[in-house]
Write a structure and sequence with these properties.
Blueprint: E1 10-16, H1 23-39, E2 43-50, E3 56-62, H2 65-72, H3 75-83, E4 93-98
Antiparallel strand pairs: 1-3, 1-4, 2-3
Helix pairs in contact: 1-3
Length: 105
């Protein structure tokens, strides 16, 4: 009997703080990333929030590490990663983890 290991979903989440005067452009870059990312194979959740203090919070859940790796290799994400640093006050405060609660879908 062969068993297949079921991978737990992985999540990536964090805060991005815009430089003074760069919030509108950072917002545009982030908003433009949402739908293409949601369309990538293995994406389970992709949400962008704007905090009262002006920071942006990004929350992603991917079916597997392989799906996240494929997403990270796409042209749309590469272009975002090239464009975003000039609009950030500091490096993103980012976190990565394996989901331990059961994913509902």
């Amino acid at each position: 009997m062969t068993t297949t290991a079921v991978q737990a979903p992985v999540s990536l989440y964090g805060f991005l703080t815009p430089k003074s005067g760069h919030a509108d452009e950072l917002r545009r870059l982030l908003v433009d990333l949402v739908e293409p990312s949601r369309a990538h194979e293995g994406n389970l959740e992709y949400h962008l929030h704007e905090q009262e203090d002006g920071r942006f919070f990004l929350y992603e859940v991917w079916r597997s590490q392989e799906d996240l790796d494929r997403h990270n290799a796409t042209d749309v994400l590469k272009a975002f990663m090239k464009a975003v640093p000039e609009h950030l006050e500091a490096a993103p405060e980012a976190y990565f983890g394996t989901m331990r609660s059961r994913y509902p879908r």
